[in-house]
């Protein structure tokens, strides 16, 4: 703690008692910290503890059985399969649209950015409904799809589509501000040195957006794994076939198999924690870089 | 002399823009337009009957009121958390800072079963309220709890950077001009964070109105009492009443668009102030 | 490689950045594009580089029309004001970049690249920084690395956009002398943009003064300084004082004041005389054609005395600079009366700018 010495004649004790002009008294500080921590404990920490406690309460063996039971494994496999399609597609989209928005001037840019935000505002339930209506057997394209023997709703493709919709903004939202802030001078420098567009992207742009891209992908990944409302409508909840991990958790919970539900939940919780660690680490790295470059 | 109608110097505009617009159209714009067109096939009477059924109206009231209360709680405590994280040092701060993002990262279904287990009459927290006759889970309070949880990161994450960038000199100037600490906070700091606070508030509200996964476990889903609007859409879709579901869906979509416009306006305001 | 700019125009929306510019730059010359901000000098430079496309007009390197050629094919070296070094690459990798991105057939071997990069780093006197990252270098060092990187691809022309703009005064002065010597060594046709007249006068073989998208004057530093083509150039190159003057047909000039309403003679024309601050003689007694003034403010800046004096005829402020010793010898102080006499001036007829 530093104290101001604007009053050199007062005793050390008096200086200590006088709060700094731009700080609160000690008791105020600790009351505020205490209130904030209580709030966060009730809403963040305790729910986290409940999941972990519920999962491991009955021992590792029960946990292992719950996550390796055939329906659970099928749900895990399906979830991973969906991720394998959704995350790369949305990552490519995010990079493409961030490039278009950050490196060029065109009309309607702000409208385009707002459109990207739409999935944040639309209820996941409505997203599911939209695709059931368009692609379901009673939907507009239903008869045509049935004719060609294509099943989308109550099948895996429907799950992929709604998760694509729901997680569409994540990579784009990370990259757009980052690339806008970086400007285009380094790319121009690369071009003047004779590099082609692809080489410039690969050697100059990509290394510069690497961390933003990684975080966007990790977040997109976490949200894709956890997508629930939209998937609940389009999956049809066919056990072992169209149940993703969150749907499987719901089934287990509704069948009063709480330990199993928490066991599968603990896997998703682990992923959420990894996401947070990655984010904190990237931020910490940025902060350190910033302070080291301003110190110079 | 000739006119050089040339491509921009940095390549890839056609490719990236073309792909982005195609992707957005196929995945987002056409499907959303499809939902609206679908409801336009309904007669006005059918549409009105579907969206104004007393059970549906009760769900609007719950969804919007609970979202409003949840977002308000977050406005107060979110600002407090942001303040504490920016201004004070205390043990475990970095971990707490990271955990604020948990509602973004943790699947809503997981959050749902965790919250209901915690706040049920036998749960770690619920048991202390049960003797006083206060039921949290399976009541409207439960809905508020879930919607508060889901909106928690928004206010913190919008206010936090503004507070961090706030110039200490302004506070010192205010203090030097004779203002006490409370006056400085009220007249100097609060106006500076207000646009960010309102943006966070609107984001939390928008997210809460459409939330499904974390609510349905804790709400108990009693018709007219603890049924949220998204749940009704799911219920109608499961009974293949697509028109009924779509009508309510369009109402939700309308609310989402209005909120999105509001948020954009607030962000524009915030950036102009910054 | 000579550069020929023919009838080039460029607008950004309603703003005319470059207005029908014609300019030829000779092989091996070091040319400065000098002008205030918004004069179109940077846009013109970016058009030469191919970073900006002209709305109309032609750019030729030697006699070849390269207007439609992409920047990556033009073989220009471009040095950016804020360096634009690749943050994630070491100094060595930065300088080697232009060579490593060449197509396989044209790419030199690793050993050749290393040899060339090290030679360039020696040329810019920074060979010891090869393994560092740009963030570990000072501004002046970064700018030298940016120059080495541009030179690595053996550019036909070297273009520098305000190369010293972001540096502090001392480093600036050092670097521009260094750039001058470097150019004498490598003799590549070079164009640099600056708003600093001193920099242009010191470094360039030739100065092109720009204003509002047009070229105001084009000549050697001496020509531009000693014979400014118009009032804008005069004002832009150094401190000047304006005097009302009457010019006789014979060329004889008489300084007057704005309030002078004595009848104009038939063979006289009104005009504005431009006199630089150091081209005014200060006298302690009246002389024919000398103007009476009152000393107002006296500041000593190192070896120079800067005076602000009030023209007694019209009350206007006149700036004067003279060596400190010379001023001391006059034994004048603030408030004293004195007389001034322009030693050299240029008169532009009409009301000037």
Automatic annotation (TrEMBL), chain A:
InterPro entries: CysW_permease, MetI-like, MetI-like_sf, Sulph_transpt2. It holds the Pfam family BPD_transp_1. It is a multi-pass membrane protein. Gene3D superfamilies: MetI-like. Residues 76-279 form the ABC transmembrane type-1 domain. Keywords: Membrane, Sulfate transport, Transmembrane, Transmembrane helix, Transport. It is found in: Cell membrane. It comes from the Bacteria. Part of the ABC transporter complex CysAWTP (TC 3.A.1.6.1) involved in sulfate/thiosulfate import. Probably responsible for the translocation of the substrate across the membrane. PANTHER family: SULFATE TRANSPORT SYSTEM PERMEASE PROTEIN, SULFATE TRANSPORT SYSTEM PERMEASE PROTEIN CYSW. The complex is composed of two ATP-binding proteins (CysA), two transmembrane proteins (CysT and CysW) and a solute-binding protein (CysP). This is Sulfate ABC transporter permease subunit CysW. It comes from Alkalimonas collagenimarina. The lineage of its organism: Bacteria, Pseudomonadati, Pseudomonadota, Gammaproteobacteria, Alkalimonas. The gene is cysW.
UniProtKB/TrEMBL annotation, chain B:
SUPFAM superfamilies: MetI-like. InterPro entries: CysT_permease, MetI-like, MetI-like_sf, Sulph_transpt2. Residues 60-263 form the ABC transmembrane type-1 domain. CDD domains: TM_PBP2. Belongs to the binding-protein-dependent transport system permease family. CysTW subfamily. Part of the ABC transporter complex CysAWTP (TC 3.A.1.6.1) involved in sulfate/thiosulfate import. Probably responsible for the translocation of the substrate across the membrane. The complex is composed of two ATP-binding proteins (CysA), two transmembrane proteins (CysT and CysW) and a solute-binding protein (CysP). This is Sulfate transport system permease protein CysT. It comes from Alkalimonas collagenimarina. The lineage of its organism: Bacteria, Pseudomonadati, Pseudomonadota, Gammaproteobacteria, Alkalimonas. The gene is cysT.
UniProtKB/TrEMBL annotation, chain C:
Residues 3-237 form the ABC transporter domain. Keywords: ATP-binding, Cell membrane, Membrane, Nucleotide-binding, Sulfate transport, Translocase, Transport. Pfam families: ABC_tran (PF00005), TOBE_3 (PF12857). SMART domains: AAA (SM00382). Transmembrane segments: none annotated. It comes from the Bacteria. GO terms for molecular function: ATP binding. The keyword DNA-binding does not apply. InterPro entries: AAA+_ATPase, ABC_SmlMolc_Importer, ABC_transporter-like_ATP-bd, ABC_transporter-like_CS, Mo/tungstate-bd_C_term_dom, P-loop_NTPase, Sulph_transpt1, TOBE-like. PANTHER family: SPERMIDINE/PUTRESCINE IMPORT ATP-BINDING PROTEIN POTA (PTHR42781), SPERMIDINE_PUTRESCINE IMPORT ATP-BINDING PROTEIN POTA (PTHR42781:SF4). NCBIfam families: 3a0106s01 (TIGR00968). This is Sulfate ABC transporter ATP-binding protein. It comes from Alkalimonas collagenimarina. The lineage of its organism: Bacteria, Pseudomonadati, Pseudomonadota, Gammaproteobacteria, Alkalimonas.
């Amino acid at each position: 703690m530093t104290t101001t010495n604007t009053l050199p004649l007062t005793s050390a004790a008096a200086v200590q008692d006088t709060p700094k002009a731009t700080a609160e008294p000690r008791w105020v500080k600790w009351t505020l910290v205490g209130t904030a921590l209580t709030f966060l404990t009730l809403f963040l920490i305790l729910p986290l503890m409940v999941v972990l406690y519920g999962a491991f309460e009955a021992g590792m063996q029960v946990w292992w059985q719950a996550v390796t039971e055939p329906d659970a494994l099928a749900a895990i496999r399906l979830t991973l399969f969906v991720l394998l399609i959704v995350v790369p597609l949305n990552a490519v989209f995010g990079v493409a649209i961030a490039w278009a928005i950050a490196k060029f001037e065109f009309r309607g840019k702000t409208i385009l950015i707002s459109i990207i935000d739409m999935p944040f505002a639309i209820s996941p339930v409505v997203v599911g409904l939209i695709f059931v209506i368009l692609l379901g057997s009673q939907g507009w394209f239903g008869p045509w799809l049935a004719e060609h023997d294509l099943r989308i709703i109550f099948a895996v493709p429907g799950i992929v589509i709604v998760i694509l919709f729901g997680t569409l903004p994540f990579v784009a939202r990370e990259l757009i501000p980052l690339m806008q802030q970086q400007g285009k001078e380094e790319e121009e420098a690369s071009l003047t040195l004779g590099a082609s567009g692809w080489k410039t992207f690969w050697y100059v742009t990509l290394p510069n957006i690497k961390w933003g891209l990684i975080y966007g992908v990790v977040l997109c990944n976490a949200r894709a794994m956890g997508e629930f409302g939209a998937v609940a409508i389009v999956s049809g909840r066919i056990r072992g076939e169209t149940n993703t991990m969150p749907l499987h958790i719901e089934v287990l919970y509704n069948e009063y198999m709480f330990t199993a539900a928490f066991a599968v939940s603990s896997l998703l919780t682990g992923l959420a924690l990894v996401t947070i660690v990655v984010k904190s680490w990237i931020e910490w790295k940025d902060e350190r870089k910033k302070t080291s470059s301003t110190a110079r | 002399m000739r006119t050089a109608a040339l491509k921009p110097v940095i390549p890839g505009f056609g490719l990236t823009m073309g792909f982005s617009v195609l992707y957005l159209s196929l995945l987002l714009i056409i499907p959303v337009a499809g939902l609206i067109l679908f409801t336009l096939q309904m007669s006005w009477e059918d549409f009105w009957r579907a969206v104004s059924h007393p059970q549906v109206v009760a769900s609007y009231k719950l969804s919007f009121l609970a979202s409003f209360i949840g977002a308000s709680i977050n406005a107060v405590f979110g600002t407090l958390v942001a303040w504490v994280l920016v201004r004070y040092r205390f043990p475990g701060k970095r971990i707490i800072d990271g955990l604020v993002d948990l509602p973004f990262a943790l699947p809503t279904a997981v959050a749902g079963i965790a919250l209901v287990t915690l706040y049920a009459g036998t749960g770690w927290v619920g048991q202390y309220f049960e003797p006083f006759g206060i039921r949290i889970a399976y009541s409207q309070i439960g809905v508020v709890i879930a919607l508060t949880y889901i909106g928690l990161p928004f206010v913190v994450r919008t206010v936090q950077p503004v507070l961090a960038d706030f110039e200490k000199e302004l506070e010192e100037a205010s203090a030097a001009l004779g203002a006490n600490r409370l006056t400085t906070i009220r007249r100097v700091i609060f106006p500076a964070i207000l646009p960010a606070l309102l943006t966070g508030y609107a984001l939390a509200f928008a997210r809460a109105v459409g939330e499904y996964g974390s609510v349905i476990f804790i709400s108990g889903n009693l018709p007219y009492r603890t049924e949220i609007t998204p749940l009704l859409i799911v219920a109608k879709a499961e009974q293949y009443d697509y028109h009924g579901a779509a009508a309510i869906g369009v109402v939700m979509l309308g609310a989402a668009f209005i909120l999105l416009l509001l948020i954009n306006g607030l962000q524009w305001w915030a950036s102009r102030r910054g | 490689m000579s550069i020929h700019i023919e009838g080039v125009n460029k607008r950004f929306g309603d703003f005319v950045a470059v207005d029908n510019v014609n300019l030829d730059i000779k092989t091996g010359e070091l040319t400065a594009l000098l002008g205030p901000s918004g004069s179109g000098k940077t846009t013109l430079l970016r058009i030469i580089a191919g970073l900006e496309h002209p709305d109309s007009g032609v750019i030729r390197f030697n006699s070849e029309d390269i207007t439609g050629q992409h920047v990556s094919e033009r073989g220009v070296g471009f040095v950016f004001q804020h360096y634009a070094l690749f943050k994630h690459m070491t100094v060595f990798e930065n300088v080697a970049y232009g060579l490593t991105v060449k197509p396989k057939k044209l790419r030199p071997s690793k050993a050749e690249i290393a040899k060339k990069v090290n030679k360039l780093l020696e040329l810019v006197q920074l060979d010891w920084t090869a393994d560092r990252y740009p963030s570990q270098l000072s501004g002046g060092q970064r700018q030298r690395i940016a120059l080495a990187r541009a030179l690595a691809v053996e550019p036909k022309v070297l273009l520098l956009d305000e190369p010293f703009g972001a540096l502090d005064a001392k480093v600036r002065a050092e670097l521009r002398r260094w750039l001058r010597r470097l150019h004498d060594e490598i003799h590549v046709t070079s164009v640099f943009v600056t708003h600093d007249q001193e920099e242009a006068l010191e470094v360039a073989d030739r100065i092109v003064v720009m204003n509002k998208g047009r070229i105001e004057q084009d000549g050697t530093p001496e020509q531009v300084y000693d014979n400014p083509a118009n009032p804008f150039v005069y004002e832009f190159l150094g401190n000047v004082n304006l005097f009302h003057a009457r010019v006789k047909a014979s060329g004889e000039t008489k300084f007057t004041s704005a309030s002078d309403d004595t009848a104009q003679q038939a063979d006289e024309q009104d005009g504005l005389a431009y006199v630089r601050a150091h081209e005014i003689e200060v006298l302690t007694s009246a002389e024919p054609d000398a103007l009476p003034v009152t000393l107002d403010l006296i500041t000593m800046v190192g070896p120079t005395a800067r005076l602000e004096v009030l023209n007694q005829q019209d009350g206007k402020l006149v700036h004067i600079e003279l060596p400190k010793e010379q001023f001391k010898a006059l034994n004048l102080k603030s408030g004293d009366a004195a007389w001034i006499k322009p030693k050299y001036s240029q008169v532009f007829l009409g009301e000037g700018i």
